[in-house]
Write a structure and sequence with these properties.
Layout lengths: L3 H44 L4 E4 L2 H14 L3 E6 L6 H16 L3 E7 L6 H12 L3 E5 L6 E4 L3 E5 L7 E4 L2 H17 L1 E2 L12 H11 L4 H8 L3 H15 L4 H10 L5
Helix pairs in contact: 3-4, 7-8
C-alpha cells in the first residue's frame, strides 16, 4: 500500500508541472498575439498605394489602365499629343471607352490639330463621340496623360519605352488636371469647321508663329505632333502661299500682312 504522503508529493509535483504548462501556454498565446499584430501591420504595408509608382512593362501598364477604366465612376480625361494613333491601339481603346461611356462616365480627350488628318483617329472619334465622348484639338499640348476620377493619373515614363508613372498623390493630380482644363478651354471641338475655312488654317498660323520665333524644323514637328517630312511639307506650302523664298521673308510678309493678328 502506497504511503499517502508519497502520493501527495507526486500530486504536488504534477500540479507544479501543470502550473508551468499554463504559464508557458499564456506566454505562447501572448507571443502569437504579438506576431499576429506584426503580420497585420506588414500586410497593411504591402497594400499601401504609393504616391508615385513606376511600371516598366507596357503590358502591365495596359492592364492597370483597363482596371482603372473598369473602376472609373465619374470621368476619364486623356491628353494625346502627336498625330494619329496606331489603328490597333485605337480599336482596343474604342471598345474600352464605349463600355465606359455606356456606364454614364464622362470622357474628355485632347488631340493636336494634326490628328484631324489621320483616318483611323477620325473614325475612332466618330465612334466615341457617338456614344457621348467629348473630343477637342489644339495646336500644341503640354504632354501625354490619362486620368481617372481625379484620383489616378498615368503619364509616360521619361526613360522606359512603354513604361509609365502611376500617380496617386492628390497635389500632383490637382496640378495635372489644372493643366488639362486650361488646355481644354483653349481647344476647339474635333469637328469644328474653323480649321477648314478659307485662308490660313489654324495649323498654318501656328507654323507661322513658330517660324517667327526661329524654331527649327525638328522642334516644330515635335511640337505640332507631325513627322519632320510633314512639317517641312507644311512649311513649303506656306512659303508658296506667301510667295516667300526664305524664313526671313516669310516672317516679314507675315508681319506686313498682319496674318497672326
Amino acid at each position: 500500500m502506497l504511503n499517502p504522503q508519497i502520493a501527495a508529493a507526486r500530486l504536488a509535483a504534477t500540479e507544479s508541472r501543470l502550473r508551468q504548462l499554463i504559464v508557458d501556454l499564456n506566454t505562447s498565446r501572448q507571443a502569437f498575439g504579438e506576431l499576429a499584430d506584426l503580420y497585420s501591420a506588414l500586410d497593411d504595408a504591402r497594400t499601401v498605394q504609393h504616391p508615385v509608382e513606376v511600371v516598366g512593362s507596357l503590358s502591365d501598364v495596359l492592364s492597370l489602365v483597363d482596371e482603372a477604366s473598369a473602376r472609373c465612376k465619374v470621368e476619364m480625361i486623356t491628353c494625346q499629343p502627336g498625330g494619329g494613333r496606331p489603328p490597333e491601339q485605337l480599336e482596343q481603346a474604342a471598345a474600352r471607352d464605349i463600355e465606359l461611356l455606356c456606364r454614364g462616365v464622362r470622357m474628355r480627350t485632347l488631340y493636336q490639330h494634326s490628328a484631324r488628318h489621320h483616318v483611323a483617329t477620325s473614325e475612332y472619334v466618330d465612334r466615341v463621340t457617338g456614344s457621348g465622348a467629348e473630343v477637342r484639338t489644339s495646336p500644341e499640348l503640354f504632354g501625354r496623360m490619362l486620368g481617372f476620377d481625379r484620383s489616378l493619373v498615368f503619364i509616360p515614363h521619361h526613360s522606359i519605352p512603354g513604361g509609365a508613372a502611376v500617380i496617386r498623390d492628390p497635389s500632383t493630380i490637382s496640378f495635372l488636371y489644372g493643366a488639362f482644363n486650361r488646355a481644354w478651354d483653349l481647344a476647339l471641338p474635333f469637328s469644328d469647321s474653323r480649321l477648314s475655312t478659307a485662308g490660313l488654317t489654324d495649323v498654318q498660323r501656328n507654323i507661322l508663329r513658330l517660324l517667327s520665333e526661329g524654331v527649327r524644323d525638328e522642334t516644330m514637328a515635335r511640337r505640332l505632333g507631325v513627322s519632320l517630312r510633314t512639317c517641312r511639307k507644311y512649311v513649303a506650302e506656306i512659303f508658296d502661299e506667301l510667295g516667300a523664298q526664305s524664313r526671313f521673308q516669310a516672317g516679314y510678309l507675315t508681319g506686313d500682312r498682319a496674318l497672326l493678328k
